[in-house]
Design goal:
Strand order of the largest sheet: 4-7-10-1-11
CATH topology of the largest domain: Rossmann fold
Number of helices: 22
CATH class of the largest domain: Alpha Beta
Shape: elongated
Structural class: alpha/beta
Number of strands: 16
Largest sheet: 5 strands, parallel
Strand content: 5-15%
Number of domains: 2
Distance between the termini: 77 Å
Mean pLDDT: 89
CATH architecture of the largest domain: 3-Layer(aba) Sandwich
CATH superfamily of the largest domain: P-loop containing nucleotide triphosphate hydrolases
Low-confidence stretches: none
């Protein structure tokens, strides 16, 4: 609830205590750590790696730089730090730089308190308004970050030497809050120099003015390791002033990546078509990203973002919806035959190196097949599908593709009881035709990649047959 104190006298009577922003964050972090409440919300897979380092940095009262490849949640972590601020903070009414009523620093606030004393009007600022962010670009100027003379105020009749002619930049306007710079190495070195005083002396100096604004700001930055060393760099004096450097990473296992995808992906359901994605298809999508991160043909310097998994999941679901619209099915599930659609959502996010032009598709197909095989070996171990192989060696065949209905694949599973048992285990008890059909395609593709069934594919359609029958 927003506090009711509206004057300096009311604020003193309420018992409100002024604290530096880092002390405020530290105290709120201590409360969360003691209670077991997550320090940051919506960030998965960092509990044993990044979070302990973050806790140490906050308890130490450090400014922080997060170092990691794209799509590792750096910006999300930074933005979530606002939850560690008090919900409401009092400022001198009309202050552009969130002046502390007990310790004003701007000319406006000092004059107002001198004039009104305990009757000085107070307003309250929510924690969300105490966060400032700037994407570092080569054209970013000192005026953007620190401030500059406002010609309009000069034209109104004020002298250039008057502090009230200043137009404050982003950093002073985030006084008593958190200021973040994304992709810090992209900031010109001469502009980085302008941040030195902010980090060490805790003040800003604006050109042409003998003024000192003792700011209270927590500075947080993000950087990509590639940019950190090659395309741009953080100047040594600035690096030295950051108290902690925290390295982020991609999900360490498939299960974590699946959890992130579930959290981030948009639903593909439409009014009359519902998508039900089996877990094995989710794992295949996550496995594709994991294999790409270790593939020698994929540039590891640019990384394989978690956004690849999220986009692929959304595209896979959309392909299933599209198939449902054509077939008239109202409940659909992504199938192996829908994986071809992922080329469109992957091509622009993965950079190849050492690959001849035109071979990118072959590399991605290799990764995709590896992902399906890895998921199959994990979920259908050993000889559980021996009876299925035997049925195909006896002459049975199976057609798959977007023009094959779920009912046709369910009928195939019914004719081969062992195939139906495996499908039931894979779907976790979901007996809908769409889920069973998806599991059937997965088993057939897994057996083919395990070199136990033949596959004749053409134009998005495939025919599976026994290897002995083909000979």
């Amino acid at each position: 609830m927003k506090p009711t104190a509206s004057t300096l006298a009311d604020l003193r009577a309420s018992g409100w205590r002024s604290r530096p922003v880092k002390e405020e964050i530290r105290e709120n972090a201590v409360s969360r750590i003691r209670s077991g409440t997550p320090l940051v919300d919506g960030v998965l897979g960092y509990n044993d790696t990044v979070v302990p380092q973050l806790e140490n940095a906050l308890l130490a009262g450090h400014d922080i730089v997060f170092l990691g490849e794209r799509g590792q949640g750096k910006t999300r972590i930074i933005r979530s730090l606002t939850a560690l601020l008090d919900e409401w903070m009092p400022i001198v009414a009309g202050s552009e730089i969130n002046d502390d009523p007990y310790h004003p620093v701007s000319r406006h606030a000092r004059d107002l308190i001198e004039q009104h004393g305990d009757a000085t009007p107070i307003t309250w600022v929510h924690r969300d308004a105490r966060y400032g962010e700037k994407l570092a670009t080569p054209d970013t100027s000192i005026a953007d970050l620190i401030g500059e003379v406002d010609p309009i105020k000069v034209a109104e009749g004020r002298y250039l030497s008057d502090e009230l002619t200043l137009h404050y930049g982003l950093v002073p306007r985030t006084n008593r809050g958190i200021f973040a710079i994304n992709e810090l190495p992209d900031l010109a070195e001469r502009i980085q120099v302008g941040l030195l005083n902010v980090l060490e002396e805790r003040d800003v100096q604006i050109r042409g003015y003998k003024i000192r604004l003792p700011l209270d700001v927590m500075l947080v930055a993000s950087a990509n390791p590639e940019d950190y060393t090659n395309r741009g760099r953080i100047i040594t004096p600035l690096k030295d002033r950051f108290g902690s450097q925290i390295r982020t990473h991609y999900p360490l296992d498939v299960a974590t990546e699946v959890e992130i995808v579930r959290q981030e992906a948009r639903s593909a359901d439409i009014a009359d078509v519902r998508v039900n994605t089996p877990q094995f298809m989710e794992e295949i999508v996550a496995e594709i990203s994991h294999l790409a991160r270790g593939n020698s043909n994929v540039s590891q310097r640019s990384g394989v973002s978690v956004r690849v998994s999220v986009s692929n999941f959304e595209t896979l679901a959309a392909a299933a919806v599209r198939r449902g619209l054509h077939s008239g099915e109202t409940v659909v599930a992504p199938r192996i035959s829908d994986l071809d659609a992922l080329v469109a959502s992957t091509a622009g996010k993965i950079e190849m190196e050492g690959v001849d032009e035109g071979r990118e598709g072959a590399v991605f197909e290799q990764i995709m097949r590896g992902a399906v095989l890895a998921a199959y070996r994990r979920l259908v171990p050993g000889d559980k599908a021996r009876a299925v192989v035997t049925a195909f060696e006896a002459g049975r065949t199976a057609n798959t593709g977007e023009d094959v209905s779920s009912a046709d694949l369910v009928a195939l599973a019914t004719e081969i009881p062992e195939l139906r048992k495996i499908a039931d285990r894979l779907t976790g008890g979901d007996e809908s035709p769409a889920a069973i059909a998806s599991a059937v395609e997965f088993v057939l593709e897994g057996l083919h990649l395990s070199k136990r069934l033949n596959k004749d594919a053409s134009g998005g359609r495939a025919v599976f047959s026994g290897r002995a029958a083909a000979v």
